[in-house]
User: What shape does this take?
Amino acid sequence: MPAIECRSLTKYYGGVRGIEDVSFTVEDGEVFGFLGPNGAGKTTAIRTLLGFLSPTSGRATLLGHDATDPSESRAARERIGYLPSDPGLDTDRTAEAFLDHQAALRGSESRKALVVRFGLDESRRIGDLSRGNRQKVALVAAFMHDPDLLLLDEPTSGLDPLLQEEFAALVRERVDDGASVLLSSHVLGEVAALCDRVGVLREGRLAAVESVEDLRSRGGKQVRVRVAEDLDRDVFEVRGAMNLRVGETVSFTWTGEYDALIDLLDGFTIHDLEVIDAPLEEAFMTFYDGDVPGPGRRGEGREDRGASGIRRTHEAGETEPSTLVTGTEADGVDGGKR
Amino acid sequence: MSDRTAPWLAIARYEAAGGARGSVVLTGLLSGFLLLFLAFFPSMSSAGIDLDAYVESFPPAFQEAFGIMSISTIEGFLAVEFYQFAWLLMVGLYLAYLSGGTIAGDVTSGRMDLTLSAPVARRDVVLGRFLGLVPLVLLLNAVLPVVAYVGVLAVGETIGVERLVAVHVLAVPYHLCCVALGIAVSTLVSRAGVAQRVALGGLFALFMFDSLAASSEYDWAGSISPTAHYDPSVVLVNAEYDAVGAAVLLAVTAALVLLAMLRFRRVDLAG
Assistant: This one.
């Protein structure tokens, strides 16, 4: 039995499209990612699955229960954990009072462990907590009853890098214990780090569903080279080289064989060379007409290094000369799968 | 599951606990208001003015609106100066306003998403939100008769305990009806601020309609207003207790809560 089965799910708000004809399946034990810019319909899809919105047409099941039937949906919600992107918490109550209430509604087997793990001070008024700490309150509420299915809407938006990693570890533990996950994000790195498959939402429609592995292998290699000789752009305008940029260093995406790349570089005296997996954005470009979701394009390299845990990229190749970096270590998901 | 509290009870408890401080403050303020008016009574009654003749000169609609029967006795004075104005109108409007913000406010703030992501039925939320305001109604109607009784004694007057108790016992169905009205509006109007104003304005309009209709040949029409079924003046001055009115109010309360449940059952939560 799949954790989520969504068939032609459509939701219009009056005449305004929320989602249209969205079909996908999240298998038992799978982590499925919704990727798309704000307004693409990620939240609408999740809130329709939870029964907060009645679909205009189409149907969906959650853990085998009809999501559009109120009492069936309630039965499914016994085993669901939901983390909204902007949780509506009671700012004038303490975290403890709020979690007590949530526990009364859904159970709280692992509340204590989670509170300790994320270092949450339950005695504070929620209104006095920082954004990250508020997110922790919602996170504990979503996970504390050990749900079989987790619906996580932009889960790490308020968390600092360290907590993002802790959160990712928690999700992986739960998946190891048999839970299934639907996670939405507008940051590709986050999705790539956690998900098995990714559904790309665009203007309310599911543009594509791909496995992260396929995307990665299809993305090619990002090559950055600095040479002693004066450069002629034409030399690099060959088959297999894309997104060519020629400056002090030359960078391009290589989709050909390694041998051909070595032949190409053979005539130069190389000062610095970096070859890494192309960021997944490159593979996603086609879905967005070049408009890649997420804050900035990692393909551009040197932006915001270290500013966020899931965006630390290309650092390995920047300072050390003649480094050849391959594999997943530096493809922009170093906060993720290892 | 069996060791968990019923969702409607959990929600009612949580909301009541959240409103506890506000309830105590409101009870204190209204007690102070009552005592302030009572303190005026001795000087008014001893001033030698024929107050009853004065109020009889008021237009009938005005007399009806504020239940003016006699203000020279302590019962009549309390009825006019406090119960008709504060208890019937002010507290009624406040309860409608407060409850008007409940469901709509939860939906707008996203609180409802967290509540309903748990295995909670929509009707449990409506019932829980209604019951969460019941302690406030009970607190007000338990404390104020005591304050009134002590206050009356303090100004050197006496009042029948039975009448004082009755005016509050009969206020409970009326106040519950105001809460239910607000809850119902809160499921019909999606924006919290608008829902609050519609609930408050609606109750006030019904009160005005009742007052005007009562002094016209269409006096039966006024009975659509909750305010027509609770008359503190008749209770305090004439010691007449309208059990039918209380029953009507309780029935309307139940109907409004039911309406809210039906309406909220399938409505989209426009977060």
Summary: The radius of gyration of chain B is 20 Å. Residues 174 and 249 of chain B are 6 Å apart (CA to CA). The longest helix of chain B spans residues 74-100.
